[in-house]
Task: inverse folding
């Protein structure tokens, strides 16, 4: 017996021996086969941010500090990552993300945070969200409003923030009748780790660049 496979048709040849003549008779019949298609569903892995960050040297008057943290410590809502988990002030009312930029200052002045994304859009109290997904989710007015606080926060929640250069600036909008020169700090976290904490002293109406980093 032999099997010949060709174009989805199997030809079966059967040799029958004649008892009376000793001759061999070949009988053929066609067996139709049905092609089988197997579909395999593959679920792609979840997207995660895998970035290499390059931080430019700080401008004149801005210093980079080594902020202290301790695993398991309580967050103090001070614009720093107190518990070393790569998030700034989680649980304090503003969001973390693949990029988080948090401003904190120490007087009743009104200081504003400006973050410009790789597409040239600037996020601030004037425009709280960019097309690239950046959001200012906490704006502060200091002593200019009753019960005002002194933290501002911008974040990107998308797993793959846009590649390119990000610029961070601060503006001393006003002293609110109660403040003079004001120390401020900016903490920047990217991909779950703090890449820098920047300190600067601002004077009324001053607007200065603080940090530039590139993904």
Result:
């Amino acid at each position: 017996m032999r099997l010949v496979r060709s174009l989805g048709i199997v030809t079966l040849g059967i040799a029958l021996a004649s008892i009376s003549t000793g001759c061999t008779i070949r009988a053929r019949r066609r067996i139709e086969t049905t092609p089988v298609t197997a579909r395999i569903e593959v679920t792609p892995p979840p997207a995660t941010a895998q970035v290499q960050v390059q931080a430019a040297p700080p401008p004149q008057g801005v210093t980079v500090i080594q902020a202290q943290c301790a695993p398991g410590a309580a967050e103090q809502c001070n614009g720093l990552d107190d518990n070393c988990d790569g998030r700034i002030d989680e649980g304090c009312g503003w969001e973390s993300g693949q990029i988080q930029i948090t401003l904190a200052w120490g007087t009743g002045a009104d200081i504003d945070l400006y973050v410009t994304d790789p597409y040239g859009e600037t996020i601030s109290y004037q425009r709280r969200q960019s097309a690239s997904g950046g959001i200012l989710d906490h704006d502060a007015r200091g002593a200019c409003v009753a019960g005002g606080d002194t933290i501002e926060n911008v974040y990107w929640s998308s797993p793959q923030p846009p590649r390119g250069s990000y610029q961070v600036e601060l503006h001393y909008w006003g002293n609110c009748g109660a403040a003079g020169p004001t120390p401020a700090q900016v903490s920047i976290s990217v991909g779950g780790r703090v890449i820098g904490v920047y300190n600067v002293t601002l004077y009324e109406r001053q607007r200065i660049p603080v940090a530039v980093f590139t993904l």
Remarks:
- The radius of gyration is 34 Å.
- DSSP finds no helices and 14 strands in the chain.
